Protein 1
Amino acid sequence: MVKSNASTVAQYLAELPDQQRAEVEAVRDVILANLPGGYVEQMDWGLITYAVPLEVSGPTYNKKPLMYAALAAQKNYYAVYLTTVMEEFEEPFRARYAATGKKLDMGKACIRFKRVGDLALDVIGEEIARLQVPDFLDWHAENRAKAAARAR
């Protein structure tokens, strides 16, 4: 599955073949077990997303809830998106991941994997748990300001 049109997480999971569903659900369980209060699980962008509701964040540039993390089954791999594993948080994340001995296949905040056993789930869980909603909102605002300054 590349992009789903499912409107609920339950629909998304039901669309997946059994093996894919098992892989996604295993990572989803880790995310949900470590997700700080205030984030909501929903479908957006064709992915399972974990976001700050607009009622909490206020208006956003794209009129969508601020995504903190996401999870998806792609055509040839699975992906966990950790939006805060950028800037000053990228190197510490990479170091913690490397210490597990697992191979990290990461793009810009996107960790790709073929099976759940390939992931350092403890590191993923730690990263999910790292920022409470107010801290994430502060981090997001700071990084938007930095990006705007670089664009000038």
Protein 2
Amino acid sequence: MSDLPRKALSRSVKLASLPVGFAGRTAWGIGKRVGGKSAEVVAAEVQARTAEQMFKVLGELKGGAMKFGQALSVFEAALPEEMAGPYRATLTKLQDAAPPMPAATVHKVLADQLGPRWRRSFAEFDDTPAAAASVGQVHRARWKDGRQVAVKVQYPGAGDALISDLNQVSRVARMATGWIPGLDMGPILAELKERVAEELDYGLEAEAQSRFAEAFAGDPDFAIPAVVLATDRVIVSEWLEGVPLSRVIASGTQEERDAVARRYAELLLLGPQRVGLLHADPHPGNFRTTPDGRFGVLDFGAVNRLPDGMPPEIGRLLSLALAGQAEDVVEGLREEGFIRSSVTIDPEGLLEYLSPFLAPARTETFRFTRAWMQELFGHINDPRKPQWSTGLKLNLPPEYLLIYRVWLGALGVLCQLEGEVPVLEVFEAYLPEFTAPDPAAG
């Protein structure tokens, strides 16, 4: 293929093959069981085949399908362990890899965006992409002044593909719900449809990256590459050397996991505080640990603009919940629109529902694990438990939707890292109006 597949029929057929293929493999599995194979062996084979097709189809399509796959990948930690194996490696591939577009297509985009003599801007240009993801791919090069740079090139037809894919991929969302019982991918998909179009505007992305780079210039803990040049479909940034977060997840030492997990958590609050922007694409492919030990951040196509910083109500309500002030929590949530005026809710039942979410801030340090996230999803999604009905009474105001998605995705990544984080210390330093609970009280 010379560029991103764009024909609606072709893309729809590929996306439709995911649930159809799953149904076919299920039927195949039943046949295997009739033939004498155990249920466990058949289930493992079906899951492995489904995972393989998921990566192949979403990876080839790129665009919105690829973006949805990346969104799914951060929730891998919520899968029950007996299911996680077949999907873990496949979904995490979607975090920082996809089949590349040919060099000739890359050259055509560069000529269109930088002019027919685009090579004069570079001392060297590597035609083999260093990374390929949902909207564009990255090539390593050396700028004419000698600097090592990353050249991000947008796929031709990415815009049409994004809109088409996100209209079609709801079929895949139903599959995801099956992997993570109770997880409603609908709101996540709807929010992606609203926001992901911004990623096509490389001018907006370059502006956000420049603001981050300026705000974090000289920071001893974080590294943000500066923008060298930007057009509608090309961004040239300083190259950021480092170990991808996915590699730390796969094989990092506990010391490395702890250090990265802390910086990852801090970034969620430091962005709004320093820049008025929340980095809104939490998957591990966007982060690095640099050779000098800093936490490197890439890809600013998805951001939440928070000019006044993180809403102070979050810190205030979290403090009230940790202090056990149930009535005040209900009142505050009602004021913010999380509980509609017509809904009656038991304050103590609400705190019981929220209790697992508060666990990371109840101790001096907290280790995020896959087991904890699985328990979390089980706690809120089990209809046999009384707190299940409490969750149904809560509403998510539109202004909090992207914050919710980013934080939920970040929890998934932290649990993949299995790092220990001083959550209370981070909240006290960077979350507006947060007050740690008094150990002497209650």
